[in-house]
Amino acid sequence: MASTVIGAGITIEGEVTADDDVVVQGTIRGKLTSRDAVTVESGAVVEADVASGPLSVAGSITGNITSSDRVDLQTGAKVVGNVKATRITIADGAQFKGNVDMDV
After folding, report:
1. Strand partners of residue 80
2. Would you tell me which of 10, 51, 77, 91 could form a disulfide with 66, CB atoms 3.0–4.6 Å apart?
């Protein structure tokens, strides 16, 4: 399956919509929607509401998250916003400030 990669050094302002996996290495400001998985890599910055399938975060997200599956906050992740998902894991060293709604 193909992936959309937003590379390091790239900044997108506006709405990003994808049918496939999205890998964020750079910066997104606005809104990010994917039918499939989203990965926010270490050093990436997302200042947007995110709606996706499974979500893996090692970078930073400021915005509300809605996942049809699970959200994994890895070591070094920083999330400020509300999370709505079926499951959430928060690794040691991850930072999370917001509310969790697991009634999806």
Report:
1. 62, 97
2. 51
